[in-house]
Amino acid sequence: MLKEFREFISRGNVIDLAVAVIIGTAFTAIVTSLVNDIITPILGIFLGGVNFSSLAITIGEASITYGNFIQAVINFLIVAWVIFMIVRSLNQLQRRFSRAKEEAAAPPPEPSEEVKLLTEIRDLLRAGR
Fold first, then answer.
1. Mean pLDDT, to the nearest integer, of 71-88?
2. Cβ–Cβ under 8 Å, residues 73 and 55
């Protein structure tokens, strides 16, 4: 069993996954800072600093803070939008680079019928000498 575990851990997939989790955690800090420190304050200017966190209903002893849920949904949508814009930009860059590679690797266009005919005539004239 220990041998199987060692084989499992040493596979590339597990190591790749571990690296992805670490990078994802670091990236989460960047996106969270972008949303909390840049985008949310800018939106606050346009929305008049609206914050739903204080909305609550008290029923007996229980306090239902539905405002926190609304604020979490809004924060999620902002983060999702930022991630979408980053991925979209990266996809556009990737398409540009792959298009440039395809154009560089594409074979030259086939000569027209006139050029083919003139080449054939030239070759026949050379052979006749």
1. 86
2. no
